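idk why but the lab printer keeps eating my pages so im just putting this in chat instead. protein + nicotinamide-adenine-dinucleotide:
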Amino acid sequence: MRLAIVGAGTMGNAHARSCANLPGVAVTRVADPDAARAAALAARLGARATTDTEEAVGADDVDAVLVTTPTPSHRPVTELAAARGKHVFCEKPIARTVADGEAMVAACARAGVRFMVGHVVRFFPEYARIHALLQEGALGEIGVVRASRVNAYPKASRDWYADLAASGGPIVDMMIHDLDTLRWYFGEVERVYARGLSGTPHQPRVDYALAIVRFASGPIAHVETSWAHATFRTAIEVCGSLGTVRHAGEETQALRLERTAPAEEARAGVQVPASPTAESPYQTELRHFLEGIATGAPFLVTGEEAVRSLGVALAALESVLTGRPVAFADGRPQLREAH
Ligand SMILES: NC(=O)c1ccc[n+]([C@@H]2O[C@H](COP(=O)([O-])OP(=O)(O)OC[C@H]3O[C@@H](n4cnc5c(N)ncnc54)[C@H](O)[C@@H]3O)[C@@H](O)[C@H]2O)c1
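predcted complex ->
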């Protein structure tokens, strides 16, 4: 399988590491408007670098495209790749708006190419094990869930995470991991209420949100996200009538140092979670994508699923911005406007 990586930032480099470990995979093209970044990553992979995305995704030596650009450009890059008949793996969130996400799903369906979105938490063994326990009914009737995912304020190309219109803040960028996982566990959402700092004067440097999510199947979830911490940390607790399951990402690391980087010390980019497993969940995710293309097996995270999860995140963001809850009809948020 021959791949193009479009976007040579934090996630482009992360997926490149997975590609290097997967047999039968060659990255042949790397595209990034930042020529130095494209060249550096391409050199490590033995690929050809370009600043022209269209040239990379249209190349004859590319079968599938990994879209690892800032969120607002997921749609144009995916549409370009689909139009050239290339399968697409796109980083989460699928897009910044539901309309963009739906257009991407439609473009891939029209072109007859496979489309998967990188909701990687479904590939973390701990979260997958909780899913299996729930499927088995091992915890009985689920009442309450608490999920938390906190990080330092992310640094990236052109500081695009600090622009709420581009990234959606920590709700659309980070909380969406847990919202997607909880949708996988419990099905569609009925109502969301959230409070947070997005849209306040704090937001460009400190952001935080807490959402209360009611699922149509019964459970109520408290979902916390933050870009106000020193380092990355995750936790989840699921309480049912037959028992509770708990996971805290930090407990799997024997030694932990948390230190806020001095202002003059540039952080490498976004901190992404590690998992002490034989295979990185990012590699498991990519292997799933490649095997799905080879065998025709369905993907664990389809574009349609990713659009639904984006809808929940946008509902939480709207709730923070308006101070009012957002109701859902048939799994779709009744948003007042496009955020
Ligand atoms: N799954 C995860 O754990 C995870 C973690 C971090 C980020 N992400 C997601 O990955 C995506 C990328 O985030 P990042 O932190 O790597 O960003 P980044 O800013 O580090 O990298 C993005 C790169 O894309 C390039 N770029 C911008 N527009 C482009 C275009 N039109 N064509 C080609 N390249 C373009 C930029 O120059 C930059 O090098 C975002 O959607 C983000 O939400 C996912």
